[in-house]
Design brief:
With about 120 residues, the protein is α/β, with parallel strands linked by helices. It has one domain (about 15-115). The protein is about 45% helix and about 20% strand. It has helices spanning about 25-40, 60-70, 80-95, 100-115; strands at about 15-25, 45-55, 75. Strands 1-2-3 form a 3-stranded parallel sheet. α2 (about 60-70) links the parallel β2 and β3. α1 packs parallel to α2.
Length: about 120
């Protein structure tokens, strides 16, 4: 009996979820979003990392985020990224740190083909 898709393939202690966010001068909304996110109760085998693109904020968003949530990974933009390129920048940063992502995706696809 399978209790998870990786049981017979890979021994993974924790599965990391990359949360990608792009902001520009939305300090209070960003802090409210992060408070809600960090208050979530995940199953024991899961954790998350936040990758936030600060696309040239001038309202103190970055400083406020780092003060309250020091584990958030901040990616710096110059105000020209907008949502799409900001999310791409966050994706690229997350991809560097979550090395098993593509391997995990391949294992999921392999499992689905044989299930």
């Amino acid at each position: 009996m399978h209790t998870g898709i990786f049981d017979n393939h890979v021994n993974i202690k924790k599965m990391t979820i990359a949360v990608l966010i792009t902001v520009h001068n939305r300090k209070e909304k960003t802090l409210a979003c992060l408070r809600n996110l960090f208050n979530q109760k995940l199953p024991d085998k899961y954790e998350f990392n936040v990758y936030l693109t600060d696309d040239g904020c001038t309202d103190g968003t970055q400083e406020a985020v780092l003060k309250e949530f020091p584990t958030v990974n901040i990616i710096h933009g110059d105000g020209s990224l907008f949502w799409n390129r900001g999310m791409y920048a966050a994706w690229c940063e997350a991809e560097k740190k979550i090395m098993l992502f593509f391997f995990g995706l391949m294992m999921i696809l392999s499992f689905l083909k044989t299930a």
